[in-house]
Amino acid sequence: MKSAINFSYLIFLSVVAALGGFLFGYDTAVISGTIAQVSQLFQLDALQQGWYVGCALIGSIVGVLFAGILSDKLGRKLTMVISAVLFSTSALGCAISADFTQLVIYRIIGGVGIGVVSIVSPLYISEVSVAQYRGRLVSLYQLAVTVGFLGAYLVNYQLLGYAQSGSQLSIDWLNKIFVTEVWRGMLGMEMLPAVLFFIIIFFIPESPRWLIVKGKEEKAVNILEKIYNSVSEATSQLNETKSVLTSETKSEWVLLMKPGIFKAVIIGVCIAILGQFMGVNAVLYYGPSIFENAGLSGGDSLFYQVLVGLVNTLTTVLALVIIDKVGRKKLVYYGVSGMVVSLLLIGAYFLFGESLGVSSLFLLIFFLFYVFCCAVSICAVVFVLLSEMYPTKVRGLAMSIAGFALWIGTYLIGQLTPWMLQNLTPAGTFFLFAIMCVPYMLIVWKLVPETTGKSLEEIERYWTGSGQREKKTLITIN
Q1: Which residue blocks in 133-216 are alpha helix, DSSP H?
Q2: Do the beta carbons of residue 60 and residue 112 sit within 8 Å?
């Protein structure tokens, strides 16, 4: 079957959907380069600064609450179009906002876009993929997120350098956006990929599995024929999906309460929220502050953060290549074990480094090792697992629940990290992150089946108990 698959077409569909991940990453990371300028311009106090940083996360929480419902009702494709409109509106609004209130409103709109795309993009990729390539294709989304982070760091760096070079633009409003108030340009540059995302979505089809759910079987078969280059294989996939759907006669919310599916939802919530308390976003959001706590200058800390972003991106490429070969669970075992070791070393550095005269280069090495272990495991695996572990009929709704938990965790860690660094000390904070890795590993070990190489229908039968053969197979390789 491998030789019959139209892999180039699959890549195209996945890359288009993954562009939403780039917008996610850019919108999340770009804020780090604007805080000082915005605070000075609008005379923000500490509380207002926190609100400026955190308001987009509130939007993200709202976005994930509606993303699943929208994607199940309107379709995956139209929901991605909506997210592109939200990103474009946010970028333009931030660039021309007249006061702090308007800026916050447009940041929240962008946050809603983040929440929506964090659900629908990996969901779409999962549903158009074939079993043997699904892991690496969904991982394209996480790769795009990390590229978005890196892109934001580089855009911030380049625009700030241009603004400080003394150059002036002849058009007043452009001069304001890119020179005198360059933070507007940093936020506004998101317009370019957002508009590209909006346009290119119209060149991809709707998810065939969603079309089958809605009874549009002819359209679904046409898309499946393009993917599999085979009428018989397309028909086989149609029949397999329909055979699973025929047993699902209850409403979506009632179906979520079925014992096996409810268990899958609870597990998804646990791995989504626990993953945030293992230090991932604390490092990505507050890296420069953490490095400065170690006695580094602002310039050195910013350079270290760029290295963190670069390692994060390159390691995600590695994860994309190996996830379908090594397996989801093994990546978690290896990666999280490495995260524990690196977090303990970082904590030990902050505890004993200064008194022992240990070079700050060791802190950089420990951080890069942590980012490597994290990017190759939980960052790459979480969206893959969440996009493939739920039944087709409730996949959007169930992913919204897990995504809601993920963004609640992200918001909490974003708000609590400065407090923890101050009150628990940096050493205590990283020791706590190391401890939080343990329950995550136990949940994946004991409760999550290995899904590598399995079709979405096989995974669904595992949770619902309607296919004992598939369940035994999944347990055997668990």
Answers
A1: 134-163, 172-175, 183-188, 191-201, 208-213
A2: yes
Place of tokens 């572990």: 389
Give the angle 383-233-450 at the CA atoms, nearest 5°: 30
Contacts of 424 (CB under 8 A, 6+ apart): 432
CB 440 within 8 A of CB 289: no
Report the alpha-carbon distance of residue 294 to residue 360 in Å, rounded. Answer: 7
Q: What is the DSSP string of 422-449?
A: HHTHHHHHHHHHHHHHHHHHHHHHHHPP
CA–CA–CA angle 56, 59, 61 (5° rounding): 115
Residue located via tokens 């452009």: 174
Give phi and psi for 434, each to the nearest 5: -65, -40
Token digits for 133? Answer: 């390539």
**pTM (2 decimals)?**
0.78
Count the residues in the chain.
Answer: 478
Where does residue 330 rank: exposed (0-12), middle (13-18), buried (19+ CB within 10 A)?
Answer: middle
Computed over its alpha carbons, how large is the radius of gyration of the chain?
A: 22
Written as six digits, the tokens of 24 are 């996610």
* CA 239 to each of CA 217, 232, 396, 428, 443: distance values in angstroms, whole numbers, following the listed order: 10, 11, 21, 55, 34
Secondary structure of residue 29 in the 3-state scheme: helix
Check if the beta carbon of residue 346 is closer than 8 Å to that of residue 430. yes
Determine the Cα–Cα distance for residues 359 and 209; give it in Å rounded to an integer. 55
Q: DSSP string of 65-80?
A: HHHHHHHHHH-HHHHH
H helix runs in 30-133, sequence order: 35-41, 46-74, 76-96, 100-128
Question: For every one of its 478 residues, what pLDDT tens digit does the chain have, with 9 covering 90 and above?
Answer: 444 788 899 999 999 999 999 999 999 888 877 887 898 899 988 778 778 888 898 899 899 888 888 998 999 999 999 999 999 999 999 999 999 999 999 999 999 999 999 989 998 998 898 877 888 888 888 889 989 988 988 888 888 888 888 788 888 888 998 888 999 999 999 999 999 999 999 999 999 989 998 889 999 999 999 998 888 888 888 888 877 666 544 446 677 778 888 888 899 899 888 888 898 877 766 666 677 666 665 456 667 777 888 898 899 889 888 888 888 899 999 999 999 999 999 999 989 887 888 887 888 889 899 999 999 998 888 878 877 777 777 777 888 888 888 888 888 887 787 788 878 888 999 999 999 999 999 999 998 888 888 877 788 788 877 544 444 444 444 4
Q: How far apart are CA 270 and CA 158, in angstroms?
A: 39
